[in-house]
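=== Per-residue structure ===
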Amino acid sequence: MIATATSDQQQHALLLLVRKCIDRQEREQMYQANGVHVLAELVNRSESYITRLYALKSLGWVADGDSRLTESAFYELRDSVREATPQELDSLAEVLQHGSEQEKGDGAVLCASIATRGQLDALRDVGVLPPLIEMLKGGTALQTLWAANALGTLACNADEIRVAIALEGGIPPLVALLRVGTAEQSHQAARALGKLAKESGNVAAIVDQGAISPLVALVRSGTDEQKRFAAYALGNLADNEEIRAAIAGEGAISPMAALLQAGTDVQKEEAAYAVGKLAIHNDANSAAFALEGAISSLVVLVRTGTDAQKQWAVYALRQLAHNDENCAAISREDGIPALVALLQGGTVEQSQEAASLIREGTDDQKLNAAYALGTLSFENEENSETIGREGAVSPLVALLQTGSDGQKVFAAYALGLLAVTNEWNRTAIGREDAISPLVALLRAGTWQQKEIAAFSLGNLAAANSANSDAISREGAISLLVTLLQEGSDKQKRLAACALSNLADNDANRAAIAREEGISPLVALLRGGTDEQKEVAACAFGNLAIDKKAGSTAIVRGVVPPLVALVRTGTNPQKERAAFALMHLANSDDENLWDS
């Protein structure tokens, strides 16, 4: 009917269709009637602006939750629809404020449709927020439903509008809809609150209105769309430790884990995101998710999920991996090969393209996978060896060489942790040419990249003469000395540790002395933190093996602070200082001890 109707008939029919399409079951009937094709044709060819808007709004659900239209295809259609004129926007605002009840309801639908077209700031500027919020408080059922949808769409990608909706009083009536609204009203309220919670300043207001309990109830026993958006909202609300504990206290862990295992595709995606957020710095939540079987479900998503599912499943695993028992569970569930697979690039031949897409993670997936692998290998030698032998080194080095700034940080972090306790990994990382890009980060990276690069280079140099020589040849020693002089406390400690490990041969010991590394190490002994003093003493234990470097250290005043550590330091400091003094005693010129 829509395809063959007159212009006015099409516009009226499309208004009715938009209202029906807010219900997923109604959309299924549309799909069976080839509705997607018909709507796309209307967006492209209809002469009526309103008809094109309503058709576009109907297709918004098709692309967002039902996966019947790709996002790129939807955006192409969206961009083909012109923007509303200032006069049209003014007329809409007038209807929302002063129209009849029927006109206000239709206006809310039109407002939501223009918001889907992307004119968010223009709608806010003509004053649609106050009348929409008034409809939430006391409008008809239709007005309330579409006001919630319009506000959620307006809040999609605009922090200023999220703030404005809260300031206009939009949060309390949205939370009230969670409790007493119809199924569709509460679904739209959960969606809108999830969007509003992306602005951190709104989180406390939403929680204070009591949103957590009804959102958890929707995750547990709501409709498919209620579950999806309630999980999404809870993930965005999990902004601090207190709220994460409160969400778990309302019983969210079990139903969220159930969504991971048996939900729809979009539910699994939102649940994986929420699990990751709830597990941040919360051992109790992390352990509870593991008991509910979440780790197994997440590993399955990493292996076989959609791109978005993989991204958020890896994000969740890296948060859960901060718990030692969870690290072991991830390994038992064969999570390590799945994470490594996201880092590995597949072949590019046409016949193997599908396999390549499965193995080759997106940028965000690779970043999260690198972080997760690093966390899994932290102080876990068995995991570290497994990760190395599963082939993680090569793709991590590739990220280090050509990735984004964030990918480089996490790749360097992972490589540094893989090198801590495993000689096979240290050798493999050096052989894959990781040293040059690490030194490049040390030379010209951000402060965080320099810190991680110093950490990784120090670990690669430990008991590995080939890596030590390569690090020195790349010019790292002078850069580490600079970091020792000018860096933060943590950077100084990591630079001292790296120099200590590099001082495993005479050439490097001489280079450290030549690059003026001795004086800042002495300064750490005198006035550094306890950790810095311990590392500096260790460095002098290695440097003093070279008599010339030892003599230079004595002249620079190394002996008194070392003696002080032997007398009053911690046990590790005493041990390192005594070792350094033993080697310094072999200096060529014993008279130097009187200086």
User: Anything to note?
Assistant: Confidence is low (pLDDT under 50) at residues 345-360. DSSP finds 41 helices and no strands in the chain. Residues 85-210 form a domain with the Leucine-rich Repeat Variant fold (CATH 1.25.10.10).
